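Posting this for the archive.
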Amino acid sequence: MSATAVGLLLLIGLLAGMLSGFVGVGGGIIMVPALVWLMGYGQHQAQGTSLAVLVLPVVAIAAWNYHRQHPLDLRAVGLIAGAFVLGGYLGSRMALSLPADAVKRVFGLVMLVAALKLILGK
């Protein structure tokens, strides 16, 4: 795996963790599009990788189902998960330092951008 790929995967994990801690949204809203757009993963592989990052028993079976049909990049899972922990801590600290209304607006903007990207396919 190239240094660029490792850097991108760590950045994806950090941003997903920060957003998760900041607005309480699942990391998949960041990880899945980032893995598709930045890493060139297929949709199924990106979704499975996102699930595998959060591999607690709740999602282990779903991630395994994806892995059986679309093998996951387990190195990427490890890198993203490590950065996700740090990002979750940092994002939660940031969110707690801001008024609830500001955090709500950030959450709404993130959801709007994600929805438009999915709807428009860009």
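The chain has one domain: 3-120. The two ends are 27 Å apart (CA to CA).
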